[in-house]
Kynureninase (Nocardioides daphniae), 411 residues
Amino acid sequence: MPDLPAHLLDQARRLDAEDPLASYRDAFVLPDGVLAYLDGNSLGRPLVRTRDRVGSFVAEEWGARLIRSWDERWMEHPLVLGDQLGRVVLGAAPGQTVVADSTTVMLYKLLRAAVDASPGRTEVVADTENFPTDRYIVDAIAAERGLTVRWIEPDPAAGVTVEEVRAAVSSSTAVVLLSHVAYKSAYVADLPAITAAVHEAGALVLWDLCHSAGAVELALDADGVDLAVGCSYKYLNGGPGAPAFGYVAERLQGRLVQPIAGWMGHAEPFAMGGAYEPAAGMRRFISGTPPIVGMLPLQDMLDLVEKAGMPAIRAKSVLLTDFTIRVAEELLAPHGVTVASPRDPECRGSHVLLEHDAMRDVVAGLWERGVIPDFRHPRGLRAGLSPLSTSFGEVLLALGHVRELLTEIST
Ligand SMILES: *Cc1c(COP(=O)(O)O)cnc(C)c1O
């Protein structure tokens, strides 16, 4: 147990006592050996309820109903769950969200569909600080379609600004791909203003919401977003390899044809027809058989998020990141740690990046102690604060261990 200043212990206790969402923590599996989990933005904790759901699914929907479950529920489930995700998390009316594939595959499908729907436009705009998969997919599609990538190089401690986007787009731009919350710095891009700037150039925008969904409020319909993708295993606690989601604004669906023309996205999958004919609406963005088992935990988390409400979740997220920065300033800054995330909570998602040259060793030591943040190459500790499962006491304890390890390493 690290030595912690009494006033910080008091603050953590008070914040936990006053937290209207504190009781939600008990809904998660909380094993004894884990003292603090600050990586809910890489893999969210499972819900206790999910254990029962998976068990009864095997016995009943799969075990007893067998193939009949496809007709009874499973065929529609990627769209039904998508609608719930749209309503609870994305600010999207029904019929625009589907749960399928991995983020990487969904991103490929939507980006390719978008560039193919923009004939005569020869450029894709993306940024060098985006997550690797996003950058690789942009490069791959550009090579496939003979397009040029116009790379924005944002400030790594912040993120892409509307001015940078305005300077990059033109009548040659087909699509702009950006992350809403930067996976390293946690910078929140100005989604409404950037979306408007892209539209002024006559281009489409595709937002990656991996670090936003379930942590930051979204209003995709109201903001006029064209396309979006995101993970369900981060703040949506869908579990390892849980499927991604894709959003396509209704006005675009008829114009977009995605490249992985599989039977499950066909207008009549069971007609086993001769040629591919895409289904109407969001079903056309499905390719193969949907991963039903992988959607079970997500269902439980969406029910919980719906109960808590995104405004309350975002409010707690802001308090958590504020507290993390305050504690880091007091306990860790004297040891040379710097905060590499925005200070303005408006521009900050639900994680905080702390940097120090010894962070690789510190994080390795933390994992051995059951204190689990993420290490981000080359010198970052990323503290992911999952609002429904993280307590303020947990944050303070974790940073106390960071200070202890920094002291050990430097002596
Ligand atoms: C986590 C993450 C991904 C992950 O993609 P997968 O296909 O699920 O592995 C992609 N993009 C961003 C921005 C991410 O944060």
Residues 102-104, 131, 133-134, 179, 183, 208, 210-211, 231, 244 surround pyridoxal-5'-phosphate (CB under 6 Å). The longest strand covers residues 173-179. The mean pLDDT is 97. Residues 16 and 391 are 6 Å apart (CA to CA).
